[in-house]
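pasting for ref
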Amino acid sequence: MNEARDDLNAPLGPLRDRMRGPVYLPGMDEYDRERTGFQRVAAHRPAMIVGAGQEQDVRAAVRFAAAHGTRVAVQASGHGLGRPLEGGVLISTRRMSGVDVDARHRTAWVEPGASWQQVIDAAAPHGLAPLSGSSPGVGAVSYTLGGGVGLLARRHGFAADHVRRLDLVTADGRHHRVTPDDEPDLFWALRGGGGNFGVVTGMEIDLVPVSRIYGGGLYFDVRQVPEVLDGWHRWTATVPDEMTSAVAMLPFPDLPMVPESLRGRHVAQVQISWLGPVEQGRLVVEPLRALGGLLRETLREMPYTESGTVFDEPDRPHAYRSRNALLRDLEPDALSALTKLAGPSAPVMCVVGLRHLGGALAEPPPLASAVSHREAAYSLNVLSPVEPGQEELVHTVQDEAVAPFAERTLGRSLNFSYGRLTKDQVRSAFSAEAYRRLTETRAVYDPQSMFHSNHVIPPAIRT
C-alpha cells in the first residue's frame, strides 16, 4: 500500500454524497483540529480525513481508500497514538459516540467514538458499570481491543473477555457481524489483537452490578519511605481479588498549582479500587498506612461515575512515550534500582507505574481471545513527557529503568505501550501460537496491510 497518493485530491462529490459526516483535506480550516489527538508527540498527516457519522461513512471511506491503493488509520480520542499516518485516509470516529444500555441483560452497545466516561454515565442510573480503565477519557473500543486492564480487573478480568459482539468493516468495505458463532476467527483476534483487522463500528459488552467503590490514593514521600514499592509489593500478596491496586511514583514540581503537601517531593501514589464493603476495605488498606511517611490521603466511598479520580491522571493533551513490561514477580533489589534510575535525578521526568494483576486476570476466559501472558503478576510502565528533540533520550532512560526486571519479564501489554514498537516488540505482547494465528487472520482479512495501526501485526506470507 502507498502511504500517500496525490489523486486523493480528485473530485470527492460521489464520496460526499454517500456520507453523513464531513470530509477534510489539507489546508481546510478544520483539518488540523480533526487530525490532532490527545497524544502530542506527533499527529497524523493524512491526505484526507473522513469525519464518520455512521457506519455507512466508514464503509465509503474504506472503499475509497481501497480504490486509490492507499492506507487507512482510525482515531477516536488519540490517547495511544504511536505511529502517525502519512498520507492516506484518516477515519475520525469521534462523532460516532452513542451508548445504548440494556439494563435487563446487563449489556451496553458502544459506538467507536465513545469514551469510557460516556459508557460509565449511561450505565450508572441502572446500578451497572463497564470494565473501564483508569483514564475515563480514553476511547472504550480501542481500549478493549488491546485487552483492557481496568479498575475492577482483579475481580472481573480483562475488558476484552466481556465482549459479546463487534461490528467490523474490513478492507473490502464489507460489514461483518462478529460473534463467537459468526466470524469466530475475527472474534478471537479482535479481542486483544488491536486494530489490525478492520474498523470496529460498534461493540456489545457486559456490564457488572457496581454502582460504588471505595477508592482513591495514598501519597507517600519516597525520601522518607524508600522501601514503599517493596511494601506495596508485599501487601499485594495478602489482598483478595476485590482489591485492584497500582502505584505511581513521580517527582512533583515545586509549583503553586501542586498541592502544598506534595510540592517538590518524590511521591509514590498508591491507587486503590476496592469492590466490597467500605469498612472491610479500610481494614485491608491499613498495612499501607503503617508504612509511614504519608503525605496525603484521598480514599473515600465514591460513585463509580467518579472513578477517574482514583488514578487522577492528567486530562490535558500532551506529548509522552512509555515503556511497558509484564512481569512474573517483583524483587526488592530491582525495585530499589528502579527508584534510583527513574527518580528525580533522571535526565528526563519518569512516571513509574506498577499495577497488580492476577486474580480474575489469570483465569482462563469463557471464550478464548488473543490476550496473552495472563500469568503475569504485575505490569510495569515507565512514562515520560517528551520535549522537542528528547525522544531518543526518553527511550534510553526508560530502557535503563526497565532493565533490572529483564529476567522476570514475560512480554508487554499493548494497552500501555505508547510509542512506535518494532516487529519483535509487538510480537512479545503475544504467545507464539497467538501471534501466528493473528498473522494468519490478518492475511485473510487484510492481506495488503491497508489498515495502519499503532502496533503492526503483519499478514502471514502464504506459500
